[in-house]
């Protein structure tokens, strides 16, 4: 069964003119390494675009995105105005087998934002898919999940590092802008699909919690 395994990366939206300052914070204060800097993911778009700067922490990544406003206001700018500077827009989760996990999503009626993005990076094929927002609202304001699969990591390689690309950033940006233009405010899931008799299971203690009992 394909399920969420770990956090792959967290994407923060920053206010206009703040990406350099937050880059300093993540590098100098937190110790991250800048691995990619894309100053315009969609330079041919006359309406709007965004910057995306990416940082590696070894076990997971962080992306900073800042809106670029041209003829129209970028949905990234709108998100920052609504939620504030350095606010979480989405978290990407590694699921091991994305195709199998998408089948799981479909079985539960989860709505995707667009098609699966497939690209090749230094470590082989990477797949990712973006979903609708957690609540029904303007897509420019929505917080949503992303699911990814990195095959080498799934095969047990522990030397794989987080990677980002302009192709993925462009696809993500255009998917959100398309939903915004269509005034699509649909949410991630319809909870009417949740069985009426479902009950929260009993907690299962983590092995680390058991080991820590003696410290209490």
Give a written overview of the molecule:
There is one protein chain. The protein is an alpha+beta fold and about 220 residues long. It has a single domain, classed as 2,3-Dihydroxybiphenyl 1,2-Dioxygenase, domain 1 (Roll), CATH 3.10.180. The protein has helices at about 20-30, 75-85, 100-105, 150-155, 165-180, 205-210; strands at about 5-15, 35-40, 50-55, 60-70, 85-95, 115-120, 125-130, 145-150. Strands 2-3-4-1-5-8-7-6 form an 8-stranded mixed sheet, sandwiched between helices. The model has no long low-confidence stretch (mean pLDDT about 85).
Topology of helices and strands:
Layout: E1 6-13, H1 19-29, E2 33-38, E3 48-56, E4 61-69, H2 75-83, E5 87-94, H3 98-107, E6 117-121, E7 124-130, E8 144-149, H4 151-154, H5 166-181, H6 207-212
Parallel strand pairs: 1-4, 5-8
Antiparallel strand pairs: 1-5, 2-3, 3-4, 6-7, 7-8
């Amino acid at each position: 069964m394909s399920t969420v395994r770990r956090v792959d990366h967290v994407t923060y939206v920053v206010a206009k003119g703040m990406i350099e300052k937050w880059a300093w914070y993540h590098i100098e204060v937190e110790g991250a390494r800048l691995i990619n800097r894309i100053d315009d993911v969609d330079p041919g778009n006359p309406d709007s675009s965004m910057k995306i700067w990416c940082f590696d922490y070894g076990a997971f990544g962080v992306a900073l995105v800042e809106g670029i406003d041209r003829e129209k206001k970028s949905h990234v700018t709108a998100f920052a105005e609504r939620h504030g500077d350095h606010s979480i827009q989405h978290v990407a989760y590694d699921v091991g087998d994305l195709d199998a996990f998408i089948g799981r999503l479909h079985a539960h009626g989860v709505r995707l934002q667009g098609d699966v993005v497939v690209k090749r990076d230094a470590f082989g094929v990477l797949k990712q898919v973006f979903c609708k927002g957690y609540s029904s609202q303007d897509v420019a304001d929505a917080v949503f999940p992303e699911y990814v699969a990195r095959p080498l990591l799934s095969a047990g390689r522990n030397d794989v590092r987080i990677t980002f690309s302009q192709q993925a950033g462009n696809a993500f940006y255009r998917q959100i802008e398309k939903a915004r233009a269509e005034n699509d405010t649909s949410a991630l899931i319809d909870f009417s699909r949740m069985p009426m008799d479902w009950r929260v299971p009993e907690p299962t203690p983590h092995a680390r919690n058991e080991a820590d009992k003696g410290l209490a």
